Amino acid sequence: LDGELTPMSRESALEAARMWHKFNADFVILSTTYDTWETEHNLKSEILQAANIEEYRILTVPRVTSTYDEAMKADELIRDFHIKNLIVVCEEWHAPRAWNALSERFPEIGIVMAPFKSPSFEATLEPSGLKSWRTKYNLTWMAWNILFWVFPPKR
């Protein structure tokens, strides 16, 4: 991140703000990745605060490396804040994997999926370079998500 979110990340923050208002949610939980998590948190928080969401309502899961890692790291926030329902905002091709990971980790929590269509795809900053490549093109993004939905990594 060089001070700017990818179109997909920006759209996810905008959609999170819309869902927060639509469902009158208590919190927004941001997923942020790798060593860029603080910058990503700040940029997404700016979008949410511009949508009249108070800073104390914005929670962050830092340094996410995968969908299942994200669910595991979100566990503490979900339990500490006694969250009983989740509205999950994610790109449409990622939604089935997100559903699998979260419903497996939190069977007692109500989960509402709120998928969105990414306005465009571009490479991201990711240590191995492999995941950067997969987000650069729509077809590789779709294939990646289908593959790991059908064959989830061992946890």
Mean pLDDT: 86
Gyration radius, in Å = 15 Å
The computed structural class is: alpha/beta
Strand order of the largest sheet: 1-2
Helix count?
A: 6
Report on this structure.
- With about 160 residues, this protein is α/β, with parallel strands linked by helices.
- About 50% of the residues lie in helices and about 15% in strands.
- The protein is built from six helices and four strands.
- The protein has helices at about 5-25, 35-50, 65-80, 95-105, 130-135, 140-150; strands at about 30-35, 60-65, 85-90, 110-115.
- The strands form two sheets. A two-stranded parallel sheet has the order 1-2.
- α1 crosses α2 (about 35-50).
Tell me the layout of helices and strands.
Elements: H1 7-23, E1 28-33, H2 37-50, E2 58-64, H3 67-80, E3 85-91, H4 95-105, E4 110-116, H5 130-134, H6 138-150
Parallel strand pairs: 1-2, 3-4
Helix pairs in contact: 1-2, 3-4
